[in-house]
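Entry 12.
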Amino acid sequence: MAGYNEQAAELFARWLEAAPGDQAAWYNYACALSRLERVKTAVRAFDYAVTAGYRDLEWPIQDPDLQNIRSAEETSEEFSAVIKRIESLIEMEKTEQAQEGGPIYVDHRTLSPYRLIAPRGPKVTGRRYPLIVLLHGRGGDFRDMQDLVDRLALPGVYYALPRAPYPVNDGVGFEYWPREAAMQSDTPTIETSRKYMTELITGIVRDAQVRAPVDSNRVLIVGFSQGAAAAFVCAMERPDLFAGLGSLAGYIPTVYAVERYFERLAEGKVACFIGHGHNDVTVQFERARKLADTLQQNGIPVNLTSYPAGHEIPDEMVVNLGEWILQRTRDADQ
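Predicted 3D structure (tokens):
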């Protein structure tokens, strides 16, 4: 892991020379430095992340990557001071927003972390493996999908767990496009953010294919809630990348529920799995049923299964999803 952290620190340092205002890069640079036990430099990088706009109060105090700067005698007080600075800035910005309105979004490009999980056990020389991209829900992080990897326990599969690109403005975690922009019907911002998100996920798939023996014909994308909506956007924009799409308690953004996007899925032979709870009050089951009907009408293979559950991923859904993944990766290999 030391070599990986060294490489990550070097890449972030290079990137920040060109984009010193990138808060996510500063934060991840701090994480890499902390894991390398360069605690003084790491806490300064964390402080620079706050200067650039980082405002998450909860995650830094539990992030295992920052454990070294939280506990080291020479940096623990500095770390606490940065946390207090975040608190002060949040309060100040709340007042400013109340006076001046909500946030303004601009087009930008950042590095974004993801976790690449290899199959358990020895690898077979010359073999290429399926890749499953797992997208967390709004307000989550890539670590949220680690539990789903463990619950699926599929043999011979690589997983890529990306982080959504936008920090949640009104809470913790990350989202795939700014909710405020959607609520304000800011169509240009939403379109830009969704295209940026698609580029980011595409880049992660390409990166995983370089780092690991991944079969490009057996890449599937699966998301939960807003992550499922993001999966639909990615697959509809880039149907050439994905052999299958899984929607768990999810939905499709309204602007993508049009014929030309369904035609892309059909032409790309992107099969779909939809798992949804009958008692889901966040995304009602009726939306999933209508979506499945529309997919079938457009010639897209779809597996819709309902569960006595709410807005969650129950065990039976995990079992059905795993069976579908194994079947779909076998079909795509033929």
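Annotation: The beta strands are 114-117, 129-135, 158-162, 166-167, 174-175, 214-224, 244-248, 271-277, 302-307. The chain has two domains: 2-100, 114-333.
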